[in-house]
Amino acid sequence: MLIGKPSQFPSSSITPQRQYLSRRRFLRGAVSGVTAAGATVIGGDRLAQLFSPRTSVFADSKLTTVPSPLTTTGEQLTSYQDVTTFNNYYEFGVQKCQPAQNAGGLPTRPWSVNVEGLVKQPKTFDIEALLKLRPLEDRVYRHRCVEAWSMVIPWVGYSLSEFIKQCEPLSDAKYVQFLSYYDSSVEKWASESTIQWPYSEGLRMDEAMNPLTLLTFGVYGKILPNQNGAPIRIVVPWKYGFKSAKSIVKVRFLDRMPPTTWNEQAPNEYGFYSNVNPDVDHPRWSQKTERRIGLPFYAQRRTTLMFNGYGDEVAALYKGMDLRKDF
Amino acid sequence: MRHSTIVFLKTLAWAACLGPFVWLVWCAVTNTLGPDPTATITFTTGLVTLRLLTISLAITPVRRLVPQLAWMVRFRRLVGLFVFFYATLHLMTWVALYTGFDPKAMSTDIVKRRYITAGMAAWLLLLPLAATSTNWAVRKLGGKRWSRLHKLVYVAAVCGVVHYWWQVKPGVLTPVTITVLLGILLLARPVLAYTQRRRSAAARVTAA
């Protein structure tokens, strides 16, 4: 049970979770301690990288955050351990535990996001500039996977709309596409499936501009671990999780619906909209209920809410649409 | 092979087959089934079913190819019954943790979702095999009828693999290994039968 509303506390005051990788970090530390002397001779940077991917320097760093009125209250948070070790990130393996083990090599610095398509002029944003564009907000959201499991996650970021304004899209831009990082030499596990990479996702412009859609940099008040989509991802809390593209390198504004990865893979199973909807079954299972991650097996099942419980904020976007057809 | 050796090996086989079940119970009690315990139980019981089924189907081809290993057939019933044990646990996971014992949800699933149709079919095919696994049943049925009935295991294996493929997302290749293994074991039977027939035919010619 949560005592008090999560929004009352900035994430900087949340007691740090036991570091889930402490075991490995300890080993790395021990090894680098032994080799420290050698490192100063043959180039510390290079050697340190061998033992600890350069990204782990950033993951776990605290972010300065402010509370947000758009945060979800009254839900027990899923533990940091579960949020960061139970992931779908198929470029790093198809099993839930694999991304946390394999994503260490994702080079999150330097990082830039290219903006192209129907914009005043193409732009490139550096990750450091994006981190400073707006104050970073603590936003707790329910997260519902299309596989019928769910979490409650305290993300850190600001509304995607703030970023889109900086992109200066033209008035005929009706859709926005997000392309994820892809390098087969880093993401060696990408061939475990027949998916065409890079991962592509998209939103209709009004969905992207909804204040709930979060441009996300952190979780639990800290920089995103790689397996959670570092260094920059989107989070669309009223849609199934796969709509929330990770590790974004390109944002493209279009006048037509972009091709999206899972929709191309199985159009009958994954619609472009993929709003959380208990009344529209996945062809292979019911979406009426979900399993909350981190609870004992006999207590996991709960009812799935229309638009994942965010109907007040987003139902108007789909007025007049048949959500059985446009699932 | 000495009787005591068989007893010893059977004890080992029992322990090995019970291992995954004991592990699941232990993890459930200590609450260490991972972030999604329901999925862990479902996946483990399903995978162990298919693996044990593969082992039980390997026994006949192996003893045909290596006559010295003929004693392995004495483990086939043990492994086969454990296949049914894990298949039943797997089925119960679905009944209890997915449908919540709701008969309507169950019938909807069976009719609407083809991977559940295939899985249910596999379990129903295993049921008469488990029921006729006693020596008494073999005697009652007669060896020929009994072994004809137990050919159903091939159909059950195919249903099980199809169930696995239909359950994973399109494009995910996790079931490849078990499919190839079971494919080889199923194909080995007609191939071995054919070569054996030729060999005995050749032997007859030489004798004449």
Portion in beta strands of chain B: under 5%
Compressed to H and E, one letter per element, the order of chain A equals: HHEHHEEHEEHEEHEEEEHEEH
Structural class of chain A: alpha+beta
Shape of chain B: globular
CATH superfamily placement of chain A: Oxidoreductase, molybdopterin-binding domain
Chart the SSEs and their pairings.
The complex is a heterodimer of chains A (327) and B (208).
Chain A: H1 22-42, H2 44-51, E1 65-67, H3 80-85, H4 98-102, E2 112-117, E3 123-126, H5 127-133, E4 136-144, E5 149-159, H6 160-167, E6 175-180, E7 200-204, H7 205-209, E8 214-219, E9 222-223, E10 233-235, E11 248-254, H8 261-265, E12 289-292, E13 301-303, H9 311-314
Parallel strand pairs in A: 1-4, 2-11, 5-12
Antiparallel strand pairs in A: 2-3, 4-5, 5-8, 6-7, 6-11, 8-9, 8-10, 12-13
Chain B: H1 3-30, H2 37-65, H3 76-98, H4 103-112, H5 114-131, H6 135-141, H7 143-149, H8 152-167, H9 176-207
Helix pairs in contact in B: 1-2, 1-3, 2-3, 2-9, 3-5, 4-5, 5-8, 6-7, 8-9
Report on this model:
Chain A has nine helices and 13 strands. Chain A is an alpha+beta fold and 327 residues long. Chain A has one domain (53-318): Oxidoreductase, molybdopterin-binding domain (Sulfite Oxidase, Chain A, domain 2, Alpha-Beta Complex), CATH 3.90.420. In chain A, strands 1, 4, 5, 8, 9, 10, 12 and 13 form an eight-stranded mixed sheet that branches. In chain A, strand 2 and strand 3 (123-126) form a beta hairpin. With 208 residues, chain B is mostly helical. Chain B has helices at 3-30, 37-65, 76-98, 103-112, 114-131, 135-141, 143-149, 152-167, 176-207. Chain B starts with a helix and ends with a helix. The mean pLDDT of chain B is 95.
Summarize the structure.
The complex is a heterodimer of chains A (327) and B (208). With 327 residues, chain A is an alpha+beta fold.
Characteristic key phrases:
heterodimer, A: 327 residues, alpha+beta, Sulfite Oxidase, Chain A, domain 2, eight-stranded mixed sheet, five-stranded mixed sheet, B: 208 residues
